Amino acid sequence: MCIQQHQHLSVMNQFKEKLYEEFEANSYKLLGVPGNRVREVLSDKGEDIDAEFEAAWDFGGAAFMRQCMSLTLCRLEQIYHERDLGRHLTQDEADERYTAWDIGLDTQTIDDYYLKKQEQDEAVQGQ
Questions:
Q1: Which residues, in sequence order, are CB contacts of 112 under 8 Å at separation 6+?
Q2: Can you give the residue ranges of every domain in the chain?
Q3: Which residues are within 8 A (CB) of 20 and not within 5 positions of it... i.e. 6 or more apart?
């Protein structure tokens, strides 16, 4: 590996590390638990969120990975919130909660994520 490639990987790893640190902080902010607890809960449901995050990085870069991380936390928080409410949130209520958390989500980034996610799913199915 040449020095230029190594430096590029080092920069990429720094970006990823910052995203994982942000995920950890947001996990406490939304759920009051560390990111590893979120991993355990979702692992019990058969989800490997780290694999999902890495796939998001590989497919759409840092922005897509960040959106994936943020929406993973928001969806889990929504499940707990709906349980406490005793009902499902409307889409408008869910969007309002997601954007109110101040973790980099607005209606545009949420829409962008779902469009990119659909592209990713189609690419995986086409393999």
A1: 67
A2: 18-125
A3: 35
